[in-house]
C-alpha cells in the first residue's frame, strides 16, 4: 500500500520534512516496483534500494546537524539509533543484492518491504516528531532575535537623525 504524506508527519523543519517526503517517495517507488503481479523486477528494485540506503545516510547526517542546531537533548541516542538502522538496512540490502534470482530472493524482497515501512513509520512518527517542540522553540527564538535586531537598528537610526538635527539647529544658532 502506498504511503500518503500527511500534515501530521511534518516536524516543522523544511529540510527534514523535504527529506522525509523524499524517503516516502522512495519507499513508494519500491512498492510500485514490487506490485504488478508479474515476475519481480529485481534489477529495478535493487536500484531503488541502493538509492534508498544512500539517501538515508545523507538524511541522517542532515537531521543530526539540525538536532545540534536546535539543541535537541536526545541527539546522542537518536544518533545511535540512526547508526543501527543504517547498518541493518545496508546489511539487508547487501544480502538481497548478492542473492541470485529465485524464491529466496523473492521472499527477501517482500520482507524488506515490511521492514522499510515499519522503519519509516517508526522513524518519522515515533522518533522524529519528538524534535518538533525544539524546532519550534528555535524558530521562535530566531523570530524574536530578528525583531530585536530590527528594533536596535531603527533605534540607532533614530538617534543618529536626532543628533544630526540637534547639530544642525546648534549650527544655525551660532
Ligand atoms: Fe528523519
From TrEMBL:
Keywords noted in UniProt: Iron, Metal-binding
A family per Pfam: Hemerythrin
SUPFAM superfamilies for the chain: Hemerythrin-like
Keyword set includes Iron: yes
Metal-binding keyword on record: yes
Domain Hemerythrin-like: 14-134
Source superkingdom: Bacteria
MF (Gene Ontology): metal ion binding
Protein family: Belongs to the hemerythrin family.
Protein name: Bacteriohemerythrin
Originating species: Magnetospirillum gryphiswaldense (strain DSM 6361 / JCM 21280 / NBRC 15271 / MSR-1)
Organism placement in taxonomy: Bacteria, Pseudomonadati, Pseudomonadota, Alphaproteobacteria, Rhodospirillales
Amino acid at each position: 500500500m502506498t504511503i500518503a504524506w500527511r500534515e501530521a508527519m511534518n516536524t516543522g523543519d523544511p529540510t527534514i520534512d523535504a527529506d522525509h517526503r523524499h524517503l516516502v517517495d522512495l519507499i513508494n517507488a519500491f512498492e510500485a516496483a514490487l506490485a504488478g503481479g508479474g515476475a519481480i523486477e529485481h534489477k529495478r528494485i535493487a536500484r531503488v534500494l541502493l538509492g534508498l540506503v544512500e539517501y538515508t545516510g545523507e538524511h541522517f547526517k542532515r537531521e543530526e546537524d539540525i538536532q545540534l542546531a536546535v539543541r535537541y537533548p536526545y541527539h546522542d541516542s537518536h544518533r545511535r539509533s540512526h547508526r543501527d538502522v543504517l547498518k541493518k538496512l545496508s546489511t539487508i540490502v547487501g544480502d538481497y543484492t548478492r542473492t541470485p534470482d529465485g524464491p529466496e530472493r523473492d521472499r527477501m524482497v517482500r520482507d524488506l518491504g515490511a521492514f522499510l515501512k515499519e522503519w519509516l513509520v517508526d522513524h518519522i512518527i515515533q522518533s522524529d516528531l519528538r524534535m518538533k517542540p525544539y524546532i519550534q522553540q528555535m524558530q521562535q527564538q530566531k523570530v524574536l532575535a530578528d525583531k530585536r535586531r530590527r528594533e536596535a537598528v531603527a533605534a540607532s537610526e533614530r538617534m543618529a537623525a536626532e543628533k544630526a538635527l540637534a547639530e544642525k539647529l546648534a549650527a544655525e544658532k551660532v
